[in-house]
Amino acid sequence: AITRIKARQVFDSRGIPTVEVDLFTNKGMFRAAAPSGASSGIYGAFELRDGDKGKYLGKGVSKAIKNINEKISEALIGMDPTLQSQIDQAMIDLDKTENKGELGANAILAVSIAACKAGAAEKEVPLYKHIADLAGKTGVVLPVPAITVISGGKHAGNNLAVQEIMILPIGANSFEEAMQMGSETYHHLKVVITEKYGSIGCNVGEDGGFAPDISSVTEGLDLVKEAIERAGYNERIKLALDVSATDFCIGKKYDLDFKSPNRSGQNFKTGEDMIEMYNQLCADYPIISIEEPFDKDDWEHTKLFCSLGLCQVVGDALLMSNPKRIERAVHEGTCNALLLKVNHIGTVTEAIEAVKLAKDAGWGVVVSHRSGETEDSFIADLAVGLATGQIKAGAACRGERLAKYNQLLRIGEELGDDAVYAGDNWRSP
Ligand code: PGA
Ligand code: ZN
């Protein structure tokens, strides 16, 4: 049974306060921390921050901590940690709001994850196995890593509007080999960028991708293409973009110069222009997935683009991992993959349900980190246990990113001959 819950404020990878929880049972102490993103979005679970501008510029989380130490812990002490849905429901009931705004989604999620880890220990099974059990699944699968290699958007200080260019080693034979391919390509890219932009071009963005001074996505894709060629992985590595277009949608137009100090408005694109651009990109490069190609409320163009069937179309802010929005998108055929951010929805149980909804619709599922991460590696086990087939955890560099990939390496080692790597079946392993 859960005997004690203790929360504290720690820092995330951007140096911003976040919630960490130690949850105790007879089996020991189980720790978890909440991540945080650059795009918060109005349709997601509510991240509770103190708002006291005199402290941490308003970003402290002492209220969330207090809610755990006083209210949540009182409600959960004595509960069986294997009963994840009951634990999560108890917190949802205690919170009483639609968006977890009373206790804070950051408070609820950290406890939910810590409880999940305690549940696995209680059953004496690996975390991914416990998660598979909770989801009613039998097979576990190591995901294809979507490794960020170039950063832009809100994650970097260059003028590139597109937030991420990622490489997907779908042609690898194992997760370990996928990481080898990703790591080698990353280091080749460092050389390619240095040759063209000097070593200053190798400064990295918040998720560890290089952030050279480029302003067009084709410039970035050409660099990555060159690096893949030099690494010798031409056919075996495919590409993906996270456009995060919500961040530069002004009215109904898209401003590809949104970070330029002397923006002229010349580079404003309509939804149709954007579709034309993606069309061309998919023809010129081996792009197999595009995330958030339009604004979160631009269901019309997202659907139009998706209907062309050029690549996987992933909903991030469009869906907010929210069952109601996922159901609408399934019904209308708006996109064909879910970006699962556990803190968008707020509990492990609801994350599992969101994945089920997406999988039942035949969608792809990408388990995702946030730009503000911690050393917590929970999402690695989550991706394996739910057999999502895809995980996006940033570059093959920076501790908080590697925490996830390294955990996947450990899981692969533990599974040994039983390890299944999603590979070519990345969309439906
Ligand atoms: P965020 O970015 O965590 O800053 O929202 C991640 C993403 O957009 O996928
Ligand atoms: Zn995104």
Automatic annotation (TrEMBL):
The keyword Lyase belongs to this UniProt entry's keyword annotation: yes
Record GO terms (molecular function): magnesium ion binding; phosphopyruvate hydratase activity
Active-site residues, record numbering mapped to chain: D207, K341
Cofactor: Mg(2+)
Residues binding Mg(2+): D242, E291, D316
Signal peptide per UniProt: none
Domain named Enolase C-terminal TIM barrel: residues: 139-429
Textual note on the cofactor: Mg(2+) is required for catalysis and for stabilizing the dimer.
Highest taxon listed in the record's lineage: Eukaryota
GO CC annotations, alphabetized: phosphopyruvate hydratase complex
Biochemical pathway: Carbohydrate degradation; glycolysis; pyruvate from D-glyceraldehyde 3-phosphate: step 4/5
One GO term of the biological process aspect: glycolytic process
EC number: 4.2.1.11
The entry's keywords: Glycolysis, Lyase, Magnesium, Metal-binding
Residues given in the record as substrate binding sites: H155, E164, E291, D316, S368, H369, R370, S371, K392
Domain Enolase N-terminal residues, every copy: 2-131
Pfam family, one: Enolase_C
Family: Belongs to the enolase family.
Protein name: phosphopyruvate hydratase
Species this protein is from: Aristolochia fimbriata
